[in-house]
Specification:
By secondary structure, the protein is mostly helical. It has 20 helices and no strands.
C-alpha cells in the first residue's frame, strides 16, 4: 500500500476530527467575547470593574474545580458498554444549548451559573471525546489522527468566531442599530449551533468497541485508582517534583489564557482592539511552535521549558504596567511565542522521565493535574484584584506561580539528567 493511501483519513476518522472543529469555537468564544458580555451585564447591575474581574476569576475557578472532580468519575462510567455515545451526546447537548442561551441571561449571577454549566459540559465532553480515539482508528494511526484533530480544530474555531466578531464590531462602530449585547447574543447562538451540528456526524456514526464488563465495572473505584497513581508518582522523586512544578507553572499559563480579555476589559481598553490582539496570539503561536520544535533538536527540553517559565514570569511583570492597547498587543505577541511551546515541551519531557510500561497511569495523573491546576491562578488573580481594587496587582500576583514552578522544575532536573527530546509536532501545541 502506498504512503499516500495509508495516510489518507478514513470517513470515520474525519468525523472524529470534526468534533475538534465543533468544540474549538466555544474555546475561543469563552476567552474573548463572553468576558466582554459579562462585563456589560455586570456594569448594568452597577458592579465596579474590580468586582467584575474578581467574580469572573472566581467563576473560572469553580468551573475548573467541578470539571476536575467530576471528570475522572464521569470517564470511568463511560467505559461501560454502550455508555460512551449517550454520555457524549448529553455533554454536547448541554454545552451547546448553554451557549445558545448565554445571551439571554441578562442578570449577572444567572449568566455566571449558566456559563459554569456550559464550561463543565464542554470539559466533560472532551474527556469522552479523547477516550473515543481507540474506537475510531488503529494504534499506528493514532498520533496522526490526533494531531490532525488539533490542527483542524485550530482552523475551524476561527470560522464562527470571525462571524461573531464581525457582528460585534459592526455594532460597536455604529454601522447598524443592533446593540452590542444583541450582536453578541447572536454570536453565542451561532457558536452553540455550530458546536451541536458539526458534532452530529460523530454522534451518529460512533460505535463503542472498547469497554469493560459489568463485573469489572462493579470492582472499579475511580478515587482508589487516582490515589494509587498519586502514590506511585510520589515514590519517584523526579516525577513527583516535576508534576508539582507543572501544577504551578501551567496554572500560571492557563490563568493568562483564561483572564486576558477580562483583564484588558477591566482596564477600560478598546474591546475590538483586544479581540484582534488575541487573534494575533493564535497566529503567532503557530510559527513559534515550529521554531521551538526545531530548537528541541539542538537543546534539551528541560532548558527550553525553563526559558519559557522565565519568559512567562516577565510577561506577568510586564502586565503590572499595562495601561494602553498597544502594550496589550505586545503582550499578546509575546504570549503567542511561548504558549504552545511550554505545553508541548512539558509533555515531551514528562515522557522521558516516566516508565514506558506505566505511561497510561502516569499520563492520567498528568492530565488531571493540567486541568485541575487552572483554578488556583484565576482565584488568586480575582482575590488580589478584589482586595486591592487594582487589576494590575492581580496579574502581578501570578508571578508567584512561575517563581515556585521554576524552582521546583529546577530541582526536578537535578534528580534526572534528561536527554534531548524528539521534535514536537506543531499541531500538538494547540491544546486547551
Amino acid at each position: 500500500m502506498s504512503d499516500k493511501v495509508k495516510n489518507k483519513l478514513t470517513s470515520y476518522e474525519k468525523k472524529w476530527i470534526l468534533y475538534d472543529v465543533a468544540n474549538s469555537a466555544f474555546v475561543l468564544l469563552a476567552t474573548t467575547l463572553i468576558p466582554i458580555f459579562f462585563n456589560m451585564v455586570a456594569a448594568g447591575a452597577g458592579l465596579p470593574s474590580d468586582k467584575y474581574l474578581a467574580y469572573w476569576g472566581y467563576t473560572q475557578s469553580v468551573a475548573t474545580i467541578l470539571s476536575a472532580l467530576i471528570g475522572p468519575i464521569f470517564g470511568a462510567f463511560s467505559d461501560r458498554k454502550d455508555r460512551k455515545k449517550t454520555m457524549f451526546l448529553i455533554t454536547v447537548a448541554v454545552g451547546s444549548f448553554g451557549s445558545l442561551f448565554f445571551g439571554f441571561a441578562r442578570q449577572w449571577l444567572a449568566f455566571l451559573i449558566l456559563f459554569v454549566l456550559g464550561r463543565v459540559a464542554f470539559n466533560l465532553s472532551l474527556v469522552i471525546y479523547d477516550s473515543m480515539l481507540p474506537d475510531v482508528t488503529t494504534e499506528e494511526r493514532m498520533d496522526d489522527v490526533s494531531s490532525q484533530g488539533y490542527a483542524w480544530g485550530y482552523i475551524g474555531s476561527v470560522i464562527p468566531f470571525i462571524i461573531s466578531l464581525a457582528l460585534y464590531v459592526l455594532s460597536n462602530q455604529g454601522v447598524w442599530a443592533l446593540s452590542e449585547m444583541n450582536a453578541m447574543t447572536i454570536g453565542f447562538a451561532l457558536t452553540g449551533l455550530w458546536w451541536f451540528f458539526v458534532s452530529l456526524p460523530l454522534i451518529k456514526s460512533y460505535k463503542q468497541t472498547h469497554y469493560i464488563s459489568e463485573e469489572e465495572a462493579k470492582k472499579r473505584n475511580a478515587f482508589k485508582e487516582l490515589g494509587l497513581s498519586i502514590k506511585h508518582a510520589a515514590t519517584d522523586k523526579k516525577v513527583g517534583l516535576f508534576l508539582l512544578a507543572f501544577f504551578f507553572y501551567i496554572d500560571g499559563v492557563y490563568t493568562i489564557i483564561d483572564m486576558a480579555t477580562a483583564y484588558g476589559t477591566s482596564l477600560g481598553l478598546d474591546t475590538v482592539g483586544l479581540l484582534a490582539a488575541l487573534l494575533v496570539t493564535q497566529v503567532v503561536a503557530f510559527p513559534s511552535a515550529l521554531i521551538i520544535g526545531r530548537l528541541s533538536r539542538k537543546f534539551e527540553a528541560k532548558s527550553i521549558i525553563m526559558v519559557c517559565i522565565v519568559a512567562y514570569f516577565f510577561i506577568c511583570v510586564y502586565g503590572l504596567f499595562l495601561d494602553a492597547l498597544y502594550k496589550f498587543w505586545i503582550l499578546a505577541v509575546v504570549v503567542g511565542m511561548f504558549q504552545g511551546g511550554i505545553q508541548a515541551m512539558s509533555r515531551s519531557y514528562f515522557t522521558k522521565i516516566i516508565p514506558a510500561e506505566k505511561s497510561g497511569e502516569y499520563f492520567g495523573l498528568y492530565d488531571i493535574i493540567g486541568k485541575g491546576a487552572a483554578f488556583l491562578g484565576t482565584a488568586l488573580m480575582g482575590f488580589v484584584t478584589d482586595i486591592t481594587g487594582k487589576a494590575n496587582y492581580g496579574v502581578g500576583a501570578i508571578t508567584i506561580f512561575f517563581l515556585v514552578g521554576g524552582l521546583l522544575f529546577w530541582l526536578s532536573t537535578r534528580e534526572h539528567n534528561a536527554t534531548p527530546t524528539e521534535p514536537v509536532d506543531a499541531e500538538e501545541a494547540f491544546q486547551n
